[in-house]
Amino acid sequence: MTVDELKALVRSIPDFPIQGILFRDVTTLIGHGDGFAATVALLAERAQAMGAQALAGIEARGFIFGAAAAARIGLPFVPVRKPGKLPVPVLALDYALEYGTGTLEIDPDAVHTGQRVVVIDDLLATGGTALAATQLLRKAGALVEDTLFVIDLPDLGGGERLRAAGLRVTALMDFPGH
Q1: Contact 119/138 with Cβ under 8 angstroms?
Q2: Tens digits of residue pLDDT in 66-97
Q3: Which residues on adjacent β-strands are paired with residue 81?
Q4: Cis, bond preceding 14 (omega within 30 deg of 0)
Q5: So where are the chain's domains?
Q6: Catalytic site residue 61?
């Protein structure tokens, strides 16, 4: 399938979660067998070209795409979790959100010093969560230079923010607006 065909599988929902937001819902893409398989294949191909030695997915939809892409190319998958989900001592990082703070955690044994890890998520908006995931993985010793998304919302500035932090940003598709 072409990227345009995949893009057509993403559902747009007006006024969610609040008035004035046009939500880009990947549920319909995931629910389309051929579309999901094609998306995973494209992500895996790009991650491999980046020299990935492991893929890290951000909870929750980054797990779906990241784990599938990692399995496709035989790489380890590193889950970047919300607090309290891992049964071992964790590395944690608090980060600023638009309204408040968030926390991400990883198992410090999930990556090796110098291991080239590519961060994968479904959607890039402001870039705050992807940047925090990158910082957390680096704290664990990983080499993180690339981020990979299914969707970029470039009007929200996340790509610019990640590039300003020295990261390469790749997205399969983008949508204007919020």
Answers
A1: no
A2: 999 999 999 999 999 999 999 999 999 999 87
A3: 105
A4: no
A5: 3-174
A6: yes
Measured between its terminal Cα atoms, the distance across the chain in Å is 26
For residue 98, indicate whether it is catalytic: yes
Among 11, 24, 98, 168, the one annotated catalytic: 98
Q: How far is CA 72 from CA 40, 77, 142, 145, in A?
A: 8, 11, 21, 21
Summarised one tens digit per residue, pLDDT across range 46-59 is 999 999 999 999 99
Evaluate the CA torsion angle 109, 113, 115, 117 in order and state its sign: positive
Block residue for tokens 């790489």: 75
User: Which of the following is catalytic: 46, 59, 61, 145?
Assistant: 61
Q: Match domain 3-174 to its CATH number in 3.40.50.150, 3.40.50.2300, 3.40.50.2020, 3.30.40.10.
A: 3.40.50.2020
- DSSP assignment string, 49-77: HTT-SEEEEETTHHHHHHHHHHHHHT--E
